[in-house]
Structure to design on (980 residues):
């Protein structure tokens, strides 16, 4: 019974849980409830991945309406993998949330906060699981609207402008996506992804389809924070509550990358992007994004903003993998989605722990904190090494595949760009490390205690995962490779 | 105990030791005991392993497989054994020295110092026993990162600047050039295994071999071939034991060791000779030998002078590798051990002078030898061994390197070696001579100055005697180097 409805439940449970959480009395109860829901989701997402990892496909017809007329949830290794990332990060973030949210969110809002969080989770899981492009748009809006609300709850009033900015940009992106979907529907009369895969090739010559494709790529690109459509991201990440920064940084952009993969490779079957200038555009945008965003990161004076720019650069790596379109390139993108969630999750958690203790993430306030909070500091160093891509960490695996993909196509420039990006990461991370460890603590020499265990344990789970997945890639590379086969499959 | 466990212990025991050191931080005597016990155990382990290798045991095993076909793989082969033997045996001696030095010099954060030191040694062991290029690179990078806190130890602006240069150049070259070279190697051959005779032959157009080799040689920044040598002088801000063991032995030798490994097991000596991959590259090594020696002469700070001397001596080994002849490889490999013994003695002496007389500039050391005869005696022996005079071990490696140039018909390079020996004399010998026979600038005699703490002296005496012994009995290192270079 559960197994048959697994995919639906994975979306329905958090969706139904959201209003319940909103109605719970203030206190720890909403948090506890959300925690349980997220762990249940993780269990189901793991189960689901296990079911499809052998290459099989789960197709679930919503309400018993057969596709392409009804809405279909279609699960293969690609989206089961992304769903696992989303559910996994939610499950790790929530134990962290308790103390962090207690401090940053007014008590009377906490129930609503967790309700919005559950809606956001619903939206992200829905995007990954659905096999229907319009349904995808609906879930995208659910996740976006809830994340605007979540970001606006940040401590500083600037969170409001950040959320507003994101609202405007996000809405433009969603509108573009909707226009694209509408054009496709007008041309083919279908919204089901697999159905579209069959129908679209006949219309590949049509201007309408090219226009639709362009609208969709730009719309998703906005959600993805693909350079130069990233302008909303630094503010949103900087001013959002710490826990939301962790969650969004580790999941939201990954889900958008997934949407891009699905659209480019499944809906428009593999080859369309290569026949149009799209892949060259991705390549250009990826290269410029990696370099420029990394350089921006060097000059940031706020640790969260620094990492936010680094996220834009990391998205550039994933876009490069899409641009190659080869098995190696897509493996790199899929693996980096997972690994980047691990490293940015750990890093934002560590910065969140600093914020928890001193109330600011401005670099001038962090002087010498590393010596007073050694565990948090070590977490930053190790996750930072993973971000740089030092061997033995997860980040190395992604870079490895990406550079191999570049070399395979004799694309020397990109190979060098990827490595140069790593070197710039050394610069901006070491700036942080030096401030934390070597600069003398502020004039008051106040003693700051190490972060509480409820923050440290989730942080270190992710840190250790960074090392584990750098040494054992059975899960990441294994699943990514079967996912890539599905993405690159030629439609019959 | 099986051999496999010995290798694992050699690598991971120092890490366990570091944990023990961190836990015993509150009780300095216990903490130092942990260091000494771990270091002692490591010396026993490397000696046992050496004996097993001599008996002909072949040890190799796999730990994980992070990427399909690219495992974390360990293998004990002669060259790695040689490096491990040198680093392992010198750690215990350096530890004895460090205890006297760190206490005599009242350094802060000693717990962190000893713990990071142990981790660095563990990483050096990992580098030595790495069985493929990926594993080697893994440990190479761990070694870079773990020595960073040691360089930045003092925490002053100068130390931070030095450490930044250190990390910047080492990570920059290794990620920007070496990793690229590794990836190219993998993408054309599909493997990163170390094989006798190399893996590239037949896959790589000889015309491109020189470029790939250059990516490797410059990418292995730890070998300090100019123009990527700046990190080594910058690292001299570290406490002297770090300069002695890490920046004269473990870290820098990990660099030239990697160059030798790549030469022998990735390119293969024959392929290099056929393709002419090192034709122009070798002049970078030759140039570094001479230029670094010349720069060393201009340095008045003793540690800076020794650092440039190390840069120059490292290029001897790179030169041996790039010659790719049997004698060249043999001489280069032996120089790992010979230079290590001599240079660590010099650094020990430099540290002793700093602790006992608080002097770091050579021009201030006139007449100091009469107050510190043991220290300057050791310095003299170390200098003579570096120059390559009998009866000291340094002679042998220079001898074989010279033979290597003749074998390759590179007469000009032979001249480079000979000129460099003269330069060595010019920048090293005046120091002990002035100390023994000269006078202090202001004419004072050093009645207040006494020798450094006994543990510092003991360490110096041991290593300088080792320089002497290695002249008469270089066999262990000779045999390892010879079988690495291909047959005896």
């Amino acid at each position: 019974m559960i197994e048959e409805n697994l995919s639906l439940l994975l979306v329905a449970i958090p969706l139904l849980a959201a209003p319940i959480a909103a109605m719970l009395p203030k206190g720890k109860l909403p948090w506890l409830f959300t925690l349980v829901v997220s762990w249940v989701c993780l269990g189901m997402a793991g189960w689901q991945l296990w079911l499809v990892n052998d290459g099989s496909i789960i197709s679930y017809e919503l309400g018993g309406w057969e596709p392409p007329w009804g809405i279909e949830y279609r699960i293969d290794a690609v989206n089961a993998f992304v769903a696992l990332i989303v559910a996994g990060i939610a499950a790790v973030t929530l134990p962290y949330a308790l103390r962090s949210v207690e401090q940053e969110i007014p008590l009377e809002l906490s129930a609503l906060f967790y309700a919005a969080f559950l809606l956001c989770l619903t939206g992200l899981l829905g995007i990954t699981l659905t096999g229907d492009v319009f349904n995808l748009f609906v879930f995208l809006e659910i996740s976006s609207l809830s994340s605007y609300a979540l970001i606006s709850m940040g401590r500083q009033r600037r969170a409001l402008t950040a959320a507003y900015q994101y609202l405007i940009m996000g809405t433009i992106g969603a509108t573009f996506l909707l226009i694209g979907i509408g054009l496709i529907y007008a041309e083919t009369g279908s919204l089901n992804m697999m159905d579209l895969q069959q129908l679209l090739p006949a219309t590949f010559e049509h201007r309408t389809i090219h226009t639709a494709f362009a609208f969709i790529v730009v719309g998703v690109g906005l959600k993805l924070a693909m350079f130069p459509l990233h302008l909303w991201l630094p503010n949103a990440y900087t001013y959002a509550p710490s826990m939301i920064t962790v969650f969004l940084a580790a999941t939201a952009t990954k889900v958008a990358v997934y949407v891009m993969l699905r659209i480019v490779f499944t809906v428009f079957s593999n080859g369309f992007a290569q026949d149009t200038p799209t892949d060259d555009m991705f390549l250009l945008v990826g290269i410029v994004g990696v370099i420029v965003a990394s350089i921006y990161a060097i000059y940031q004076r706020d640790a969260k903003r620094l990492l936010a720019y680094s996220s834009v650069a990391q998205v550039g790596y994933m876009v490069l993998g899409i641009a190659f379109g080869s098995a190696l390139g897509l493996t790199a993108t899929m693996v980096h989605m997972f690994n980047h969630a691990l490293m940015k999750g750990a890093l934002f958690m560590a910065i969140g722990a600093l914020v928890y203790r001193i109330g600011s993430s401005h670099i001038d306030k962090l002087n010498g904190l590393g010596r007073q909070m050694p565990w948090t500091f070590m977490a930053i160093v190790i996750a930072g090494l993973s971000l740089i891509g030092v061997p033995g960490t997860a980040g190395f695996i992604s870079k490895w595949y990406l550079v191999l993909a570049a070399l395979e196509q004799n694309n020397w420039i990109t190979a060098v760009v990827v490595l140069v990006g790593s070197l710039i990461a050394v610069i901006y991370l070491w700036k942080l490390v030096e401030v934390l460890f070597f600069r003398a603590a502020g004039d008051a020499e106040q003693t700051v205690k190490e972060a509480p265990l409820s923050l440290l344990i989730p942080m270190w789970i992710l840190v250790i995962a960074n090392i584990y997945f750098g040494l054992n890639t059975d899960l990441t590379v294994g699943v990514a490779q079967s996912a890539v086969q599905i993405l690159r499959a030629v439609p019959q | 105990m099986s051999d496999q466990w010995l290798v694992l212990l050699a690598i991971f025991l120092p890490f366990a030791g570091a944990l023990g050191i961190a836990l015993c931080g509150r009780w300095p005597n216990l903490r130092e005991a942990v260091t000494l016990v771990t270091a002692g155990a490591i010396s026993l382990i490397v000696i046992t392993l050496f004996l097993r290798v001599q008996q002909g045991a072949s040890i190799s095993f796999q730990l994980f497989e992070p990427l399909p076909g690219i495992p974390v793989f360990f293998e004990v082969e002669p060259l790695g054994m040689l490096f491990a033997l040198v680093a392992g045996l010198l750690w215990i001696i350096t530890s004895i020295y460090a205890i006297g030095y760190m206490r005599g010099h009242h350094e802060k954060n000693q717990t962190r110092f000893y713990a990071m030191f142990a981790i660095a040694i563990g990483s050096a062991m990992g580098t030595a026993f790495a069985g493929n290029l990926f594993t080697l690179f893994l440990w190479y990078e761990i070694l870079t990162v773990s020595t960073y806190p040691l360089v930045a130890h003092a925490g002053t602006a100068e130390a931070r600047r030095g450490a930044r240069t250190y990390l910047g150049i080492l990570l920059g070259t290794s990620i920007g050039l070496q990793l690229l070279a590794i990836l190219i190697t993998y993408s054309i051959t599909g493997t990163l295994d170390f094989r006798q005779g190399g893996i590239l032959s037949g896959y790589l157009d000889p015309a491109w071999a020189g470029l790939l080799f250059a990516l490797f040689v410059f990418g292995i920044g730890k070998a300090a071939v100019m123009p990527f040598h700046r990190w080594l002088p910058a690292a001299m801000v570290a406490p002297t034991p770090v300069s002695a063991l890490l920046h004269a032995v473990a870290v820098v030798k990990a660099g030239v060791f990697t160059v030798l490994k790549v030469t022998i097991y990735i390119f293969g000596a024959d392929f290099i000779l056929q393709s002419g991959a090192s034709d122009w590259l070798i002049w970078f090594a030759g140039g570094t030998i001479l230029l670094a020696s010349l720069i060393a002469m201009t340095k008045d700070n003793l540690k800076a002078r020794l650092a440039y001397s190390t840069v120059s001596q490292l290029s001897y080994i790179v030169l041996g590798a790039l010659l790719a002849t049997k004698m060249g490889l043999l001489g280069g490999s032996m120089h790992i051990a010979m230079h290590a013994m001599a240079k660590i003695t010099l650094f020990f002496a430099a540290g002793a002078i700093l602790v006992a007389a608080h002097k770091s500039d050579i021009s201030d050391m006139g007449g100091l030898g009469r107050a510190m005869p043991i220290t300057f005696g050791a310095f003299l022996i170390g200098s003579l061994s570096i120059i390559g005079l009998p009866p000291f071990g340094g002679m042998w490696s220079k001898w074989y390197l010279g033979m290597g140039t003749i074998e390759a018909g590179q007469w000009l390079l032979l001249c480079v070696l000979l000129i460099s020996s003269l330069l060595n004399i010019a920048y090293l010998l005046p120091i002990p001579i002035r100390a023994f026979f000269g006078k202090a600038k202001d004419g004072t005699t050093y009645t207040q100055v006494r020798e450094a703490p006994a543990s510092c002296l003991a360490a110096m005496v041991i290593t300088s005697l080792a320089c002497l012994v290695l002249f008469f009995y270089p066999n262990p290192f000779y045999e390892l180097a010879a079988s690495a270079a291909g047959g005896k």
Q: What stands out?
A: Chain B touches chain A at residues 64-68, 72, 134, 137-138, 141-142, 145, 152, 155, 160, 164, 167-168, 171-172, 175-176, 179-180, 183-184, 186-187 (CB under 8 Å).
